[in-house]
Specification:
With 123 residues, the protein is mostly beta strands. The protein is built from no helices and 11 strands.
Length: 123
């Protein structure tokens, strides 16, 4: 049974930071893509960042480049999203997702496994 469990969301002021965590279990954590998506009310789910756990290659959507960093602790099967200089437009439910392989890392339909989400609110 595959589980992705997110934690670390909360409410912060603009300019502050948060770190999200995604712990994976029941899942072969290597040579795959793990990503963070977000969804604000009334908007489509948006790919934020992805890390290929085998190579360590990372990808980001343009709006978070230079502010967010995705990383992993391979031994703990955990992926992190460090979010700095948060803006009100970053407010959303953030989801962790995993896939064996993807053609487009930002396409939500390519991911088979999802966490329950963690809320990030920036005011």
């Amino acid at each position: 049974h595959v589980q992705l469990v997110e934690s670390g969301g909360g409410s912060v002021q603009a300019g502050e930071s948060l770190r999200l965590s995604c712990a994976a279990s029941g899942y072969t954590y290597n040579r795959n893509c793990m990503a963070w998506f977000r969804q604000a009310p009334g908007k489509e789910r948006e790919g934020v960042a992805c890390i290929y756990t085998g190579s360590g290659n990372t990808y980001y959507t343009d709006s978070v480049k230079g502010r967010f960093t995705i990383s992993q602790d391979y031994a703990k099967n955990t992926v992190y999203l460090q979010m700095n200089d948060l803006k009100p437009e970053d407010t959303a439910m953030y989801y962790c997702a995993a896939a064996w392989t993807v053609e487009n890392w930002a396409a939500a339909h390519e991911y088979s496994f999802w966490g329950q989400g963690t809320q990030v609110t920036v005011s």
